[in-house]
Design a protein that fits this description.
- The chain has eleven helices and nine strands.
- The chain is α/β, with parallel strands linked by helices and 333 residues long.
- The protein folds into two domains: 2-53 and 279-290, no CATH class; 72-262 and 298-325, Rossmann fold.
- Helix 8 (226-246) links the parallel strand 7 (208-213) and strand 8.
Length: 333
């Protein structure tokens, strides 16, 4: 894969667009790269050329598998909540490929079918559980289903959060306020419930690891995304409180706080912004990349690396911590 930048307006823009072009070329599906190649030689646009070979090695399965040797979960059971799609599905696949038996939890049975099959193909034994984690009976039923199947729970990852639209609080109507409440309920109360019903099984064994996937947004308020910031902040503080409560019983509780994660959804968001602003998509991508020290968003596998690390014995002395995975988009003390 070769990447060529043409007709950048300034040297600084050329550097940013070139970084964005290389990131897309290395991480996007080939079909997307080919689509972008049709942009052509236009001012301020990144132009992509596809070659016969596309393997960059940076995020290849071979690269990831080498790291997984250090993060073995053979003989252990991991529960991934919010595993129907996106990061949650990637986490389930990664735990499976690292040797764990994996329970995938989501509301939608249809989404669990696809993500469960991918996790199963990665090598581990898989259980799928359709449940509304914000419902105490469902959360308790989920935990019991995992115990009935596997007899133990070593890892719990809370990654569930519903997709919501961006809107200002003062503009919300009654249905939108209800959607706000529901989103925060899943992100906060749902996380509390899964911990409530899974943690006792860890305490009984004197060992376990809980990782809540929060967000850069849990540290800062974002205009139009108050429900996301609030829900993720709750998951953050729940983790710290539980770390103090469960530490004496050998159970560790930590958070991973991602920033922008490269995905079809993020790409769609950038494209919608480009349309609103009347600029090329690559210009929006370059603008966001310029705010990140690494000049690119992180990938789902990079976030998964952090989650697996905190869940593993390599992090045996770490609890109550928040690990930022945001490509240097936000530095925190």
């Amino acid at each position: 894969m070769s990447v060529r930048l043409v007709a950048a307006a300034t040297p600084e823009q050329e550097m940013l667009l070139d970084t964005s072009a290389r990131f897309i070329a290395e991480t996007c599906p080939l079909s997307t790269v080919r689509e972008l190649a049709e942009v052509g030689d236009r001012p301020g646009a990144a132009y992509f050329e596809t070659a016969a070979a596309r393997d960059t090695g940076l995020y290849s399965e071979g690269f990831m598998s080498e790291g997984q040797n250090l993060l073995s979960f053979h003989g252990r059971v991991a529960v991934v909540v919010g595993a129907g799609a996106g990061l949650g599905a990637t986490l389930a696949r990664r735990f499976s490929s690292a040797g764990a038996s994996v329970a995938l939890v989501a509301r939608s049975t249809a989404s669990l079918d696809a993500s469960g099959e991918a996790a199963r193909a990665a090598g581990g034994e898989v259980l799928t559980v359709a449940a509304d984690i914000a419902s105490p009976p469902d959360a308790e039923r989920m935990a019991m289903a995992v115990m009935d199947r596997f007899g133990r729970i070593d890892v719990l990852v809370n990654a569930a959060f519903p997709n919501t639209a961006k809107r200002a609080v003062v503009d919300m109507d009654a249905p939108e306020l209800e959607e706000w409440r529901r989103a925060v309920e899943i992100g906060g109360f749902g996380t509390l419930l899964t911990c409530r019903y899974v943690a006792p099984h860890m305490v009984e064994r004197g060992a376990g690891s809980i990782v809540n996937v929060t967000s850069m947004s849990s540290r800062i308020g974002l205009a139009g995304r108050s429900e996301y910031s609030a829900g993720k902040a709750q998951a953050h503080k729940i983790a710290q409180s539980l770390a103090a409560e469960l530490g004496p019983h050998g159970v560790r509780v930590n958070c991973v706080a991602p920033g922008h994660i490269w995905s079809a959804r993020l790409e769609g968001y950038y494209r919608s912004l480009a349309m609103q602003r009347g600029v090329e998509y690559e210009v929006v991508l370059a603008g966001y990349a310029s705010e990140m020290a690494l000049r690119r968003p992180v990938t789902e596998d990079e976030v998964a690396n952090a989650v697996l690390f905190l869940a593993s014995d390599l992090a045996s002395g770490i609890t109550g911590a928040v690990l930022d995975v945001n490509a240097g988009h936000l530095f925190t003390p």
